[in-house]
Design brief:
Chain lengths: ~150, ~160
């Protein structure tokens, strides 16, 4: 795949993100280090009215897995210059051991920077799905990309 | 009274700080965010950041660890005092997450949570929702991270 610059990302374009299987070991390892709440560490938790039965992945782990999907699906073959943040993010469904996540990134807007002529900003809506096609996470995220004409 | 009643809007919670070593930055990035400026000192020198820096998701994940540890300590203290502990649960999401400055290898980031609001959940009896603005500052006092999060907390009355 050719390296993609700001000019190559057009409003309405949908970029498919590669699938990512989620293992029990990965869920527990992430939780031990970054989110040691009981329902991310071990089985046997009854549904609380808010969480499902059993082991569920940390939402921040789902974010991290999504980031890897975005890197492999777009950013590593692009002129990405980082991101100022996330406008909003919703965790809509829990992620369990054995799930396989997929995703898509839709270009909502793209504009050249007025102050820094070497780059532009692209606003994405990223959506992450499980193997049943159910949405597990949605986030809106601006990302800086270098411009082809000046880079 | 419940632990939820005792939380005051406007109060600040010091979660503690995290040291971002080069090793941990590269380990996190190798798994989740393998962009050159998070993985390799030499490549990072030539990037817009100018030096090896942490994935933004690493900065956020380190915040979560300190938040969980903080509320676990508060719960232990409440139990010791014979009060019902505040139990945090899942989160529906967040807004306005900002990576304000790069977090470089060797930086120490201190995180603080400001309670913005609290309300009982309309759809989930027995649960409340806390809204918090969490910020992170490096050892120079510069803001590096901010996010407005919402978290479900269980509302339990104190034991009789």
């Amino acid at each position: 795949m050719a390296k993609r610059f700001f000019e190559d990302l057009t409003v309405g374009e949908v970029i498919a993100l590669p699938p990512a299987p989620v293992t029990r070991d990965a869920i527990v390892a992430f939780a031990r280090e970054y989110d040691p709440q009981p329902f991310h560490l071990e089985d046997g938790h009854p549904a609380s009215g808010l969480t499902d039965d059993g082991l569920i992945a940390s939402g921040w782990h789902v974010c991290a897995i999504f980031m890897r999907m975005l890197c492999d699906g777009l950013l590593l073959e692009s002129s990405c210059l980082g991101s100022p943040g996330i406008e909003s993010l919703k965790w809509q469904r829990t992620v369990h051991p054995g799930d396989t996540l997929t995703g898509r990134s839709t270009v909502l807007a793209a504009r050249a920077s007025e102050t820094k002529r070497d780059r532009g900003i692209v606003r994405f809506r990223h959506e992450v799905f499980n193997q049943r096609g159910e949405t597990v996470m949605t986030l809106d995220n601006p990302v800086f990309f270098g411009r082809r004409s000046v880079s | 009274m419940s632990a939820f009643d005792r939380i005051a809007v406007g109060e600040a919670h010091e979660f503690g700080s995290h040291i971002f070593t080069a090793g941990e930055i590269k380990r996190f990035a190798g798994a989740f965010d393998p962009q050159p400026f998070h993985l390799d000192e030499e490549a990072a020198k030539d990037s817009i950041f100018g030096a090896l820096c942490a994935s933004g998701w690493h900065t956020a994940s380190a915040m979560m660890r300190l938040l969980v540890d903080h509320f676990t300590r508060l719960a232990e203290r409440a139990r010791a005092a014979g009060e019902a502990p505040l139990t945090i649960g899942p989160s529906p999401g967040f807004e306005q997450l900002k990576w304000l400055r790069p977090v470089f290898a060797g930086d120490t980031v201190a995180y603080t949570g400001l309670i913005l609001g609290k309300r009982a959940s309309r759809s989930r009896p027995g649960w409340g929702i806390l809204s918090m603005e969490t910020t992170g500052a490096n050892q120079k006092g510069e803001a590096v991270f901010a996010v407005t999060t919402h978290v479900f907390v269980r509302i339990e009355p104190d034991p009789e």
